[in-house]
Amino acid sequence: MKLVKTLQAVALCAGLIGLGGAQASVMLFSSPGNSGSILYSTTHDGATLDATMQFTLTSWDATTAVFGVNVANNSSGPGTNRLMSFGIDVVSPTLTGASSPTSTTAPYWVAALNDTLPSFQSVNLCLWQADPTSPGTTSCSGGAINDGLGESGSSSFSLTLTTSAANNFTNGISFTSPYGVKFQDVGVSGQSFEFAGCIVGTPGCGGGGGGGGGGGGDVPEPATLALVGLALAAAGGVRRARR
Q1: Closest by alpha carbon to 147, among 76, 83, 75?
Q2: Which among 1, 104, 128, 222 is least surrounded, fewest beta carbons within 10 Å?
Q3: Distance between CA atoms of 194 and 84, rounded to whole angstroms?
């Protein structure tokens, strides 16, 4: 893996959530066996959030690339701190497809293109855990409070990316930050929390904890958002009654 550093600001999420500026960085995979890891490490609301995602290019041709992906959630503290989803802001060349094998016996990872990871808006590539008993209930944006990879959990899966013959992978495949992640049921308050990770081996990004990047923001759980909506509707009704 080759590391290339450029300057770029992390996008600000409109509305409730703001993320701090950070340097962007690139992972370039140019031959089978190339490997790179993303570290997500920070503290929030009494919890220590710590996870790694390792990508290894196992095979490729002009239009198809297969990666082995290893995910580990080493988080601890109050809350269940479940790792729900993570995204890569830009993948080059432009992808035409992304997939991972499904399972009927255990949670499996789903891959999708140009999806929404709320604090980071649209990301080129997003991956999240799905429950085989109800696969439609989770997405890049989240799921039920008990979805996702729990503390001390790990999983491995293959990821297949495709591109067009016109774009092809001849010059390699690059992943460009920010690398956003979403944890659910975090800390004392039990809210979701999203923040950006960094490439292991780059300055300020250690391999054994510390060095998370990009700031972060609380994200209300779906049930909380529903209650807020009901409260606003009720307030509107009271105002109309007074008039």
Answers
A1: 83
A2: 104
A3: 10
More confident residue, 35 or 146: 35
Residue listed under structure tokens 């989770």: 138
Task: State the Cα–Cα distance between residues 14 and 10, nearest whole angstrom.
Answer: 13
Exposed/middle/buried for 31, CB within 10 Å: 0-12, 13-18, 19+? exposed
Per-residue pLDDT of 202-223, as tens digits, reads 998 974 433 333 335 555 444 4
Question: pTM score > 0.90 for this model?
Answer: no
E strand or H helix at 240: helix 222-242
Comparing C-alpha atoms, which of 182, 243, 242 is closest to residue 216?
182
- Give first-to-last CA distance, the chain, whole Å: 66
Helix (H) or strand (E) holding 175, with range, is: strand 173-186
> Tokens 């956003």 map to which residue?
180
Contact assessment for residue 182 and residue 40, using Cβ atoms and an 8 Å cutoff = no
* Band of residue 9 on the pLDDT scale cut at 50, 70, 90: very low
Q: For residues 83 and 80, give the distance between their C-alpha atoms in angstroms, rounded to a whole number.
A: 9
